[in-house]
């Protein structure tokens, strides 16, 4: 008889949510976590600490540059050590909260490294160096992802850093060079730019934010450039060499051409993430991987080996915490005999720069590639009353709707509170709503979300305030 109904390897957002939901459904659950704290990359060195620094650095910049226009005279002084402590306090509160939920839901916890011996058997090397074998009916792999590395460029987490090192720099660099114009690079670049660094972003492609609606990406670049961030698109970093206290960074055109060397105190490598599937015993267990080392699963998240499941960053799809959470819920419900499901057409994506950038559903390029006829409704924040009085008029809301049925296919927002505004778009899309439905829904005044209603009205060419 197995000791457990399910053992979850990894306690990031996908893993711990899966474990809690399974326990709620009456299954006997254990989790294995190699860190000393729960929460995975997201809570420890990802989503949570980065948002703390984004919030604090934004407040610092507001105090230095934005308060005066509102009649508040202030000259802020940066105490970086205290700001980092503020970040750490927020992280501790979150990881302690997950630990409490494990106890509350009577989930057994093992702190150590897991290896799958075969179906129903997991070996654990505990952090105390003791070894243990656990038997279970089902195994769920939720080990998340690791930072992607550039060949020939060694990350030392001192002056050549990944996102982890960038969250704890002991002083503000004079010059920071960011390799990669994706979400992580722009967010952490924004933090250090606000705190006083000159930030240059180097991107291999000829645009920032690959995969996002191009209109949104171009507008976001213009806004960030206006704030002081500089961009070198269509370029690649080929060498990072120590030069005194800093680095000489060699940059070449992506399509070939003359190289150039620039100086940087800190280099942030943020070219994406890769699934964490090494060392789990997958080959020995016969678990199939794709050409990107992601675990292959069926529609019910089961691998080719019965009884072994996977979710989150280790399987195909966007590497987002909330995507993993939804998958965790679905897997737990499937294991309990219910019908777990995730709607991958309605997974929001948010970039926590200022203004924030959020999207859900398809972009214009996606719709064109799919041969789908669509209508556009777009409303600028310059015409929104709340944005005007708050002096946060950079951005817009764009609604894309099916030209024949009016069903909403995508919503894209650049706004001060885009991360909150995108939720109503996700809800209406989850229920198959139309632009007309959104346009006829009463929105409180004055709010930024009125811009969403106006964009929906604009689909039918009847926006009121422009």
How does this model look, in words?
The structure is a single chain. With 466 residues, the protein is α/β, with parallel strands linked by helices. Helix content is 33%, strand content 26%. It is built from 14 helices and 21 strands. Strands 1-2-3-4-5 form a five-stranded mixed barrel. Strands 7-14-8-9-10 form a five-stranded parallel sheet. A five-stranded antiparallel sheet has the order 17-18-21-20-19, with helices on both faces. It is globular, with a radius of gyration of 23 Å. The mean pLDDT is 97.
SSE topology:
Elements: E1 4-9, H1 13-24, E2 29-33, H2 40-45, H3 47-66, H4 80-104, E3 108-118, E4 121-126, E5 131-141, E6 145-147, E7 160-161, H5 163-166, E8 175-179, H6 183-194, E9 198-202, H7 214-227, E10 230-232, E11 235-243, E12 246-253, E13 260-264, E14 266-269, E15 273-275, H8 282-285, E16 308-310, H9 321-335, E17 349-351, E18 356-361, H10 364-369, E19 374-380, H11 385-390, E20 396-402, E21 408-415, H12 418-430, H13 435-439, H14 450-459
Parallel strand pairs: 1-2, 1-5, 2-3, 5-16, 7-14, 8-9, 8-14, 9-10
Antiparallel strand pairs: 3-4, 4-5, 6-15, 11-12, 12-13, 17-18, 18-21, 19-20, 20-21
């Amino acid at each position: 008889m197995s000791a457990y109904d399910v053992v979850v390897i990894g306690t990031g957002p996908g893993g711990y949510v899966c474990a809690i939901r399974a326990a709620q459904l009456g299954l006997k659950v254990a989790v294995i976590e190699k860190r000393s704290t729960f929460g995975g990359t997201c809570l420890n060195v990802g989503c949570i600490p980065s948002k703390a620094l984004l919030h604090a650095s934004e407040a610092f910049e507001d105090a230095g540059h934005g308060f005066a226009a509102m009649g508040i005279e202030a000259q802020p002084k940066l105490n970086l050590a205290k700001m980092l402590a503020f970040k750490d306090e927020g992280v501790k509160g979150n990881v302690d909260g997950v630990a409490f939920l494990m106890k509350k839901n009577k989930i057994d916890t093992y702190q150590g490294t897991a290896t799958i011996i075969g179906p129903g058997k997991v070996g654990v090397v505990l952090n105390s160096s003791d070894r243990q074998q656990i038997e279970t009916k089902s195994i769920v792999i939720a080990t998340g992802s690791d930072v992607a590395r550039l060949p020939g460029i060694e990350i030392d987490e001192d002056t050549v850093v990944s996102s982890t090192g960038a969250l704890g720099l002991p002083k503000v660099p004079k010059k920071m060079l960011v390799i990669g114009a994706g979400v992580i690079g722009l967010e952490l670049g924004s933090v250090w730019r606000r705190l006083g660094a000159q930030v240059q972003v180097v991107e291999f492609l000829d645009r920032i934010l690959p995969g996002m609606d191009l209109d949104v990406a171009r507008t976001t670049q213009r806004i960030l450039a206006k704030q002081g961030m500089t961009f070198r698109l269509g370029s690649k970093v080929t060498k990072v060499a120590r030069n005194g206290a800093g680095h000489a960074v060699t940059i070449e055109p992506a399509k070939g051409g003359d190289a150039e060397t620039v100086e940087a105190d800190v280099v942030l490598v943020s070219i994406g993430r890769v699934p964490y599937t090494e060392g789990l015993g997958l080959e020995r267990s016969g678990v199939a991987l794709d050409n990107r080392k992601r675990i292959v699963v069926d529609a019910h998240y089961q691998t080719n080996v019965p009884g072994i499941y996977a979710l989150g960053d280790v399987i195909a799809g966007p590497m987002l915490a909330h995507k993993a959470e939804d998958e965790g819920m679905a897997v737990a419900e499937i294991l309990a005999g219910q019908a777990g499901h995730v709607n991958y057409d309605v997974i929001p994506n948010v970039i926590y720069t200022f203004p924030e950038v959020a999207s859900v559903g398809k972009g214009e390029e996606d719709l064109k590639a799919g041969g789908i006829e669509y209508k556009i409704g777009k409303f600028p924040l310059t015409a929104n009353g709340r944005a005007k009085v708050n002096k946060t008029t950079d951005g817009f809301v764009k609604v894309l709707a099916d030209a024949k049925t009016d069903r909403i296919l995508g919503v894209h927002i650049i706004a001060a509170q885009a991360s909150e505004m995108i939720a109503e778009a996700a809800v209406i899309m989850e229920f198959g709503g139309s632009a007309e439905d959104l346009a006829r829904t009463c929105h409180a005044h004055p709010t930024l979300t009125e811009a969403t209603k106006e964009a929906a009205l604009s689909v039918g060419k009847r926006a009121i305030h422009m």
